Amino acid sequence: MAIRTVLQLGDPGLREVARCVEDPGSPEVKRLVKDLADTLGHWRKTTGYGRGIAAPQIGSAMRVIFLRLPGEEPWPLVNPEITWRSEEKIVVWDACLSFLSIFMQVERHRDITVRYQNLRGEWQETRAGEERNLSELLQHEIDHLDGVLAVDRITNIRTLASRTYGRYVHARSLKRGIARVALTRSRRRSPSEKRPQHRDHREAREEERRGERHRRWERPASRSCRASETF
User: Fold this and answer.
1) Extents of the domains making up the chain
2) Which of the following is catalytic: 125, 131, 141, 207?
3) Which of 34, 104, 116, 219 has the fewest other C-beta atoms within 10 Å?
4) Among this protein's residues, is 141 annotated catalytic?
């Protein structure tokens, strides 16, 4: 049982497709879950980030993820699979322990159903929605098992931002009540249509066009924003 190194963006290990676990109750899986718990706890303590982690992030190509939601018991999920996805989607700020210095907007299904095994090998099912940001968290972690990262799901490269700027913009968005944008297939924008942009982004680009220097953004108070709770 140990704190393991979290693989960082660019490491080929993050792109491997994890293999199914044949015996969820094996000593190997129990050791892996303990390592995931220790590693996540360390990152949470030292950075304030992290509610979930996937086995490939610590170099183990097994289909196991581990969640630690505030006020709840540790939650290991073995061989998790999404069996149902809502048509309605949301756009959220996302980041990752494997590239904690950058934030981006990604598109996720608003609601999902996940089937998984516990450490006794019993199959269970859970329905996840926007409550506690559980749906987007599970989608983020399960993506890791297939070698898919949040950067692969970015809605627009222009939303890519540093951690400081991403936290600031997202905190302002929360105050204005526009942090989330609901999308449905019936109302999907055409590629030629421009996605609405945050006012601060428009202002920054106006300053660039005028040849002026970017105005420095003041870092928000040490209050965590929801973007820090999605992975």
Assistant:
1) 12-85+112-151
2) 141
3) 219
4) yes
